[in-house]
Amino acid sequence: MRTPDTSLDPRFSDPDAVPTPWSTAVDALATAQLCWLTTVRRDGRPHVTPLVAVALDDAVHFCSGPAEQKTLNLRHDPHVALLTGSTEWDRGLDVVLEGRAVRTTEQQVLRRLAGAWGEKWDGQWQFDVRDGAFRHADGGEALVFTVTPDRAFAFAKNPFGQTRYVF
User: Fold this and answer.
1) What sign does the CA torsion over 69, 75, 76, 79 have?
2) Pairing assessment for the beta strands 46-51 and 93-104 based on DSSP bridges
3) What secondary structure, in 3-state letters, does 64-130 show?
4) Mapping DSSP to helix (H, G, I), strand (E, B) and coil, where does residue 133 land?
5) Sequence-ordered list of residues with C-beta below 8 angstroms from that of 69, at least 6 positions apart, any chain
6) Which of 147, 57, 31 is CA-nearest to residue 109?
7) For residues 29-68, b (16+ Cβ closer than 10 Å) or e, as one string?
8) What is the pLDDT along the chain (167 residues), one digit of tens a residue?
9) Which residues pair with 10 in a beta bridge?
10) Fewest C-beta atoms under 10 Å: which of 14, 128, 138, 161?
């Protein structure tokens, strides 16, 4: 696991807060059932969508159909924010990654990721790998993207603490 420079921002943290370890933030991403992805449309407007993702090899991976809005957005601007967390004000941990979404096409990596998807969701997400993409049982194609963070943030609650990670 890459080790980022980690700092607690005292402006947004309780006096008794401590930085959230990067391993805790990674665990939150790895166990999240749902993430939200923000991409940028051609006209500059943000596009936010929920999706399932897999954390593996110091990155977070997601998939999208070739004609989906997020895929169209990534063709002209690969910068994304990917986040997960709790909807409760005073419990849980929210994690935000910032980076570039890069298409993953290597067959061996895709096979590992397909296995990770199936394992994480007890077989509910099953993909075959062919021609540099995932294939659904109905033959539909899903492109796979990898986000390796440039920076990330963890927002701890109770005590409140904002941790910044720079890679």
Assistant:
1) positive
2) unpaired
3) ECCCCHHHHHHHHCCEEEEEECCCCCCCCEEEEEEEEEEEECCHHHHHHHHHHHHHHCCCCCCCEEE
4) strand
5) 39, 41, 47, 49
6) 57
7) beebeebbbbbbeeeeeeeeeeeebbbbeebbbbbbeeeb
8) 689 999 999 999 999 999 999 999 999 999 999 999 999 999 999 999 999 999 999 999 999 999 999 999 999 999 999 999 999 999 999 999 999 999 999 999 999 999 999 999 888 889 999 999 999 988 899 999 999 999 999 999 999 999 999 99
9) none
10) 138
pLDDT of residue 1: 65
Q: Which residue has the tokens 């991976």?
A: 61
Q: Which residue has the tokens 């492109």?
A: 143
Q: Amino acid identity of 109?
A: V
In the chain, the domains with their CATH numbers are 5-166 (2.30.110.10)
What is the pTM assigned to this prediction? 0.95
Q: Judge residue 161's burial from the number of C-beta atoms within 10 Å of its C-beta, 0-12 exposed, 13-18 middle, 19 or more buried.
A: buried
Q: In angstroms, rounded to a whole number, what is the distance separating the alpha carbons of residues 26 and 74?
A: 24
